[in-house]
Write a structure and sequence with these properties.
Number of strands of chain B: 19
Number of domains of chain A: 1
CATH class of the largest domain in chain B: Alpha Beta
Strand order of the largest sheet of chain B: 5-4-3-6-7
Strand order of the largest sheet of chain A: 4-3-2-1-5-6-7
CATH superfamily of chain A: Aconitase, domain 4
CATH topology of the largest domain in chain B: Aconitase, domain 3
Oligomer: heterodimer
Helix content of chain B: 25-40%
Largest sheet of chain A: 7 strands, mixed
Number of domains of chain B: 2
Shape of chain B: globular
Largest interface: A-B, 55 and 78 residues
Distance between the termini of chain B: 51 Å
Strand content of chain A: 15-25%
CATH architecture of the largest domain in chain B: 2-Layer Sandwich
Order of helices and strands of chain A: EHHEHEHEHEEEHHH
Number of helices of chain A: 8
Structural class of chain B: alpha/beta
Strand content of chain B: 15-25%
Structural class of chain A: alpha/beta
Largest sheet of chain B: 5 strands, parallel
Bound molecules: iron/sulfur cluster
Radius of gyration of chain B: 21 Å
CATH class of chain A: Alpha Beta
Number of strands of chain A: 7
Shape of chain A: globular
């Protein structure tokens, strides 16, 4: 996983509430056995019509937002399935950060696993950033994970909370599995105890 | 010792290590695997030269992509689906995990196969790369969905890095009225909490109406905990649980059964244990419900009318307008006047034998309306065989239903069972998202009884008129 670097980029406004994983990446694209290449189908059924032509109204098809790196989203972004194809598609498209009042649990975890930072902020602050994002290319926002700060082009700075362990993993680009394997002795000890106390498992 | 919830007890029994900031390393007892969310995880193991740490605790079954037609062993039309299914075959063999291939009568939807084979037992931690893993919570096990990176993590280490969730209690008091089912309970709860109301929580369902449910009904309830955003849903095990589990192929036997039972009987929430959030619904107040929109929170009693966007507030106004446009519905239309052209009975929510019995009881001696496409997709090969033995398959076929082989099928339409644009389906599955059952398809969620009733009349129907 790549280290999470400070981002300064275009934020795209997606105020719809309950944007679900089926919207982010429809199931016909889950048949892949790879992680790569899903960006082309991000929000596929909203971005393209039945014949594969771009839907001009859809926000990611507007010239200002084609290279967006941040999404400012309505409540409960990423609800629905556990498909990690959703963050894979976002990342492949170039999105490295999503800001909302809340995220579905599994999607939230999946983001961290892939170097995407999901930021939870109170409603007023999300609304403020949504307005900012509506300005398009003229309003780049900066995400500084080290300082835990989102700042707008006019200098407004907003602090955010993030789980310290997850923050460190993003900053260092750490692989969870390596970290856990360092604890093999504890896992073995647990297994021995469990074999005695819950032998039927 | 301070009083604990059921969730606290299971959690505590599985923590290997806890860091100062509360991050825990949690041991995983059962890992269920299917073909869609696992290929990249196995590939990750291969690339890093790792093995599956506990192949004996790892169980795989193909379900999402499998065709449900009789010729599926001979050929799978879609090339990508075939590759994904073949990949699971190869990974299961290479890594030596338990496997139920398509040719095995025990094959079916992963959340139906696990309990059926006795892999799911009270007090366990159960994970799967699938959000409806919550189903297994019906046994008083802590069960939740994970992403593919976490699948790889569990394969390699048999653990997960986790933060503990908060405790939420959902109590359903009293008795259900006739025609009201476990599906109506779980949809009504999602309607009450909203799609994000459970985010950050593990829900324990309790109360007389939950106790009165069969194990299969309890699975239906827990299945949709995720639709309210909860990490997991749980129900304390009781005599019904033990009776269901006893004798299953992978349930403990003999002396081990006795030891297990003694521990299982301690798995309940202590008096005065703390819940961070509580929701209480009266069983008597729950009606047969349907969804009208594109979020599972868009629930109303079948006696209701399609709402207007102006009935809502905030961000939901735009979402409802979008949903009504997508669903092709006009505010003020009575729900019972909404016509359907497709009926789907199946899925991990309602693809078990009792669901099929309930639907067949409504359909017996009747015909579905002309022009309706209706299908039953049993949750597993064993459910299918039992339904055939009980004569249910004949009832469905006589009524005009297609009788399919086991799989996820039209629940998510990764196989050829899909809605065409504009088609409207009465479905017993769990998600009504845009495009879920096929691009521009329209889904109304409901119980198997209600879906059967809709097949007969060709519109959303109050099943109470037929019983
Ligand atoms: S039946 Fe539907 S919800 Fe259940 S596992 Fe299959 S696709 Fe997922």
């Amino acid at each position: 996983m790549d280290k999470f670097q400070t981002i300064t980029g275009v934020a795209v406004p997606m105020p719809l509430v309950n944007i679900d994983t089926d919207m982010i990446i429809p199931k016909q694209f889950l048949k892949t056995v790879k992680r790569s290449g899903l960006g082309a189908n991000l929000f596929d059924e909203m971005r393209f019509d039945k014949d594969g032509n771009e839907v001009p109204d859809f926000v990611l098809n507007q010239p200002a937002y084609r290279n967006a790196e941040v999404i400012v989203a309505g409540d409960n972004f990423g609800c629905g399935s556990s498909r990690e194809h959703a963050p894979w598609a976002l990342l492949d498209f170039g999105v490295k950060c999503v800001i909302s009042t809340g995220f579905a649990d599994i999607f939230f975890n999946n983001c961290f696993q892939n170097g995407i930072l999901p930021i939870v902020l109170p409603k007023e602050q999300v609304e403020l950033l949504m307005k900012e994002a509506e300005k398009g290319e003229n309003a780049r926002i900066t995400i500084d994970l080290e300082k835990q700060e989102v700042s707008t082009s006019d200098g407004t700075a907003i602090n955010f909370e993030v789980d310290p362990f997850k923050r460190q993993c993003l900053l260092d680009g750490l692989d969870d599995i390596d970290l856990t394997l360092e604890k093999s002795t504890s896992i073995e000890k647990f297994e021995e105890q469990a074999a005695a106390s819950r032998p039927w498992v | 010792m301070s009083p604990k919830t059921l969730y606290d007890k299971i959690w505590d029994a599985h923590v290997i290590q806890e860091a100062e900031d509360g991050t825990c390393l949690l041991y995983i007892d059962r890992h269920l695997v299917h073909e869609v969310t696992s290929p990249q995880a196995f590939e990750g193991l291969r690339l890093s030269g790792r093995k599956v740490r506990a192949p004996d605790r790892t169980i795989a079954v193909p379900d999402h992509n499998v065709p449900t037609t009789a010729d599926r062993l001979e050929h799978v039309e879609n090339e990508e689906s075939r590759v994904q299914l073949d990949t699971l075959d190869e990974n299961a063999a290479e890594f030596g995990i338990h496997y139920y291939p398509v040719s095995d009568i025990r094959q079916g939807i992963v959340h139906i196969v696990g309990p059926e084979q006795g892999w799911t037992l009270p007090g366990m931690t159960v994970v799967c790369g699938d959000s409806h893993t919550a189903t297994h919570g019906a046994f008083g096990s802590l069960a939740h969905g994970i992403g593919t990176s976490e699948v790889e993590h569990v394969l390699a280490t048999q653990t997960l890095i986790q933060q503990k969730s908060k405790n939420m209690k959902v109590e359903i008091t009293g008795k259900l009225r006739p025609g009201v089912t476990a599906k109506d309970i779980t949809l009504s709860v999602v309607g009450a909490t909203g799609a994000a109301g459970g985010t950050g929580y593990v829900i324990e369902y309790c109360g007389e109406a939950i106790r009165d449910l069969s194990m299969e009904g309890r699975m239906t309830v827990c299945n949709m905990a995720i639709e309210g955003g909860a990490r997991a849903g749980l129900i304390a095990p009781d005599e019904k649980t033990f009776e269901y589990v006893m004798g299953r192929p992978h349930a403990p036997k003999g002396a081990q059964w006795e030891t297990a039972l003694a521990w299982w009987k301690t798995l309940f929430t202590d008096d005065d244990a703390h819940f961070d959030k509580v929701l209480t619904l009266k069983g008597e107040d729950i009606a047969p419900v349907v969804t009208w929109g594109t979020s599972p929170e868009d629930v109303l009693p079948i006696t209701g009318v399609v709402p207007a966007a102006s009935d809502f507030e905030g961000g939901k106004v735009a979402a409802v307008q979008r949903a009504l446009d997508y669903m092709g519905l006009k505010a003020g239309t009575p729900l019972s006047e909404v016509p359907v052209d497709t009926v789907f009975i199946g899925s991990c929510t309602n693809g078990r034998i009792e669901d099929l019995r309930a639907a067949a009881a409504i359909l017996k001696g009747k015909k579905i309306k002309d022009g309706i496409r209706a299908m039953v997709v049993p949750g597993s090969g064993l459910v299918r065989a039992q339904a055939e033995e009980e004569g249910l398959a004949d009832i469905f076929m006589d009524a005009g239903f297609e009788w399919r082989l086991a799989g996820c099928s039209m629940c998510l339409a990764m196989n050829p069972d899909q809605l065409a644009p504009g088609e409207r389906c009465a479905a017993t599955s769990n998600r009504n998202f845009e495009g879920r059952q096929g691009r521009d398809g329209r889904t109304h969620l409901m119980s198997p009884e209600m879906a059967a009733a809709a097949a007969i009349t060709g519109r959303l129907t109050d099943v109470r008129e037929m019983i």
